[in-house]
Please model this.
Amino acid sequence: METLQYAIRKLIYAIPLLFGVTFLSFILMVHFGPDLTYSILPKSATQEQIEEIRAELGYDLPFLQRYGKFMKEVVTLDFGSSTSSGEKVSSILKKAVPVSFLVALPAFILANLLGILLALYAANHRGRFPDKAVMVLAAIGMSISYLMVVIAFQLIFCTSYGLNWFPVQGWVEPPPDYPDATAGEIFYYYWYYYWSYVAVPTLASIFVALGYNTRFFRAVIVEELNRDYVRTARAYGVRNRKIMMKHVLKNAMIPISTRIIITLPFVVIAGNLVVEKFFGIPGVGLVTYDAITNGDLPIVKAVVTCTAVLYVLALILTDIVYKIIDPRISYSK
Amino acid sequence: MTESAPKPVLRIRDLVVEFKTEMGVIRALDKISFEVMAGESLGIVGESGCGKSVTALSILKLIPSPPGRIAEGSIELDGIEVVSQPEHEMRKVRGALASMIFQEPMTALNPVFTIGNQMVEVIRVHQKVSKTKAKKQAIEMLRTVNIESPEKRIDQYPHELSGGMRQRVMIAMALSCSPKLLIADEPTTALDVTVQAQVMEEIKRLQQEMNMGLILITHDLGVIAESCSRVLVMYCGKIIEMAETGELYKNPRHPYTRGLLDSIPRVRKEKLKTLPTIKGMVPDLADLPKGCRFADRCPKVEDRCRTEEPPLEDTEGGGKVACFHPN
Model:
């Protein structure tokens, strides 16, 4: 209950911040944004035609009015229609967000979980061989370009040069229409195709994220291991496994959870441009990529704004998680 | 005070502890030997870096390793040789046979768990009891160390308690499995002066009630005078003097001990003069002088002191001193 109050207060405090990020998005994407007039009109357009289009796009409105219009779009989550396909931006995103989420989620969970486990293992053997081995592997993982990893994994897992286990590109299609298909069979169909499309992107993402995560988490855990309470627990005979998994981990979760939550907006909305483009997955990443290359402003505007807002919300979530982990953070201020 | 054949709870013989550093291997403890009897309280004094805390930590094998290691010697805790004891066996010794109170009650307790959680954990490491029973024991223990309304305190977090209260919790935790030896590493240094006396009083009372051996590590000779029967003075990883408390205060034999005693501020009849200090600096452990380690600062230094290391020898007062020209 107190935590809920705390959460609500944090949300209220975030309002000015939300205004800030949306205002910045407005300045960058709308006020200084690209002028579409001349890409819509032919070169021979007359002055009247130009003015007509400018009025239609709202370019002739004064600053505050344009800002008001933009804020209305943000609040109603209605960013107009895509200039290339004419489809409503909200319905495009409604389709793309769950896809991005489904693609990124397994990698997100596994990369963090494995990162914590490896970091605990390395920290527990700090300064000795297992620690050094893990750290060298992490450095190697960090040093290889994402693009190389994606291509290499596609070659290894998706082509006849390698194992040829998974399709190179694509996403789950609705199942073919068998009238007597049971619910179980339909579930199995989705389950099977989901994993066949998601497996390689997941492996590639884990490969790339794991190095960073492990190094960061290890540093945090090693710092906790040097604290006095660890020595106390040891002096009273608490077993090492319990010191690591209970005492150290809970304290280390404070910085670790920050890092994990901060990356959440990218999982939910910003997607992953590289992965989705290379694997042809119709998530937010691919939509954004195409929108940028096509100059499809409403979509870019929506993605940028939503990412900024989600970022603020993620920060609030971090505060709430802190509160849950650390009893020293008071409810009052 | 003559008991029939008192049994030592702790017997340290020729203990050498080394640390690997960038400047080479440093001997933090150089062949120290002493004993603590059941029910006896032994004070260890010395400047920072003289090896007091290392001594305390090596008894429980808590020296951070690497870089530290026990290179030689033996530590016998209630008849059990600790040095050769493997880590999983040490767990049964720590907290049960010998327990420890640390200097910083602010940081020595885990901030994200309740007092009760941490106390119950320690009790259940050494006793096969249910959580509810362990909690009852913990509450009893908190009552023993004079914490008011322990039922309420036990569910609080360390930051909700005052410094003195936290140190009492530490004492309760340390004693929850009735150890035979309690090591208190500067237990009152971080506390307010008024609280210091109360906490020391508590430690002394419980030590007598439970007939534990007590090692009190401090740089405060006043605290030792009040609570210890025997004192051990350390300098640069060596024991340089050991004596009954009264004898040591009346008759300090080593010039260093004398210097320490002289530098205690006290209200004198005559006008306060500048407080005497021991001139010079503690030598670097990585670059020790050849002879007596105190030679450079000693007012009585002679040529022999610079070439030969004085052995720890018996004195008429019943103590021991490592000096060629004791008082």
User: Anything to note?
Assistant: The longest strand of chain B covers residues 8-21.
